[in-house]
Amino acid sequence: MKQKIGQVIWNHVQEHSALYLFITVLFVMGIIFGTLTVQSLGYAQQHELYTYFQQFLEQFAKENFVDPGYAFYQNFIHYVKYVGIIWVLGLSIIGLPVILIMVFLKGVFVGFTVGFLVHQMGLKGFLLSFVSVIPQNMVVVPLILMMSVISISFSLKLMAHLFRQNRVNRELSLAKYVSVMALAAVILVAVALFQTYFSPLLMRGLL
């Protein structure tokens, strides 16, 4: 079963290798842009952001800072909204540019967050980002990239089907497309659980 799933994923990546390369490069460009944005901030802006961040860390150090159930709900909804919007955009041809913008912005957010922590806190900032930002993004980012490729591919196929008026094949593709989002939601549950219950423990170990 695992080998079959792995083969399906591998065949999918090979079939859309050019699109994956383009999306990955776009995401990396976002990371670079986000990192450079940290350097372009003035001293006053950096100091203000760091002050807010320090206040957050002080509150976060308290055990009952946020109710875990509420935190899990917020984390899960945040990820599902982001991936879900990309999924919905794939249902429309005009949504393609927005998908690309969202991939780029995700890279900007990751680059800015990690860059800011490292710039302000040095090694401790890197370790803090390593336990608070990187772990969940090691799953979320590939999922976003894959969903973006699938959405773009589906949108292009939908456009072709509309011109060909091939209604049966379009309905079969839509069923598979829905199942992909359902699988993504299950994966995001695991990500939200990790971010809610394990990531805070790792962060408190560094504070």
UniProtKB/TrEMBL annotation:
<keyword id="KW-1003">Cell membrane</keyword>
<protein>
    <recommendedName>
        <fullName>Stage II sporulation protein M</fullName>
    </recommendedName>
</protein>
<comment type="subunit">
    <text>Component of the MPD complex composed of SpoIIM, SpoIIP and SpoIID.</text>
</comment>
<dbReference type="InterPro" id="IPR002798">
    <property type="entry name" value="SpoIIM-like"/>
</dbReference>
<feature type="transmembrane region" description="Helical">
    <location>
        <begin position="18"/>
        <end position="38"/>
    </location>
</feature>
<keyword id="KW-0472">Membrane</keyword>
<keyword id="KW-0749">Sporulation</keyword>
<dbReference type="InterPro" id="IPR014196">
    <property type="entry name" value="SpoIIM"/>
</dbReference>
<feature type="transmembrane region" description="Helical">
    <location>
        <begin position="138"/>
        <end position="156"/>
    </location>
</feature>
<keyword id="KW-0812">Transmembrane</keyword>
<feature type="transmembrane region" description="Helical">
    <location>
        <begin position="85"/>
        <end position="118"/>
    </location>
</feature>
<keyword id="KW-1133">Transmembrane helix</keyword>
<feature type="transmembrane region" description="Helical">
    <location>
        <begin position="177"/>
        <end position="198"/>
    </location>
</feature>
<comment type="function">
    <text>Required for complete septum migration and engulfment of the forespore compartment during sporulation. Required for stabilizing and recruiting of SpoIIP to the septal membrane.</text>
</comment>
<dbReference type="Pfam" id="PF01944">
    <property type="entry name" value="SpoIIM"/>
</dbReference>
<dbReference type="GO" id="GO:0030435">
    <property type="term" value="P:sporulation resulting in formation of a cellular spore"/>
</dbReference>
<dbReference type="GO" id="GO:0005886">
    <property type="term" value="C:plasma membrane"/>
</dbReference>
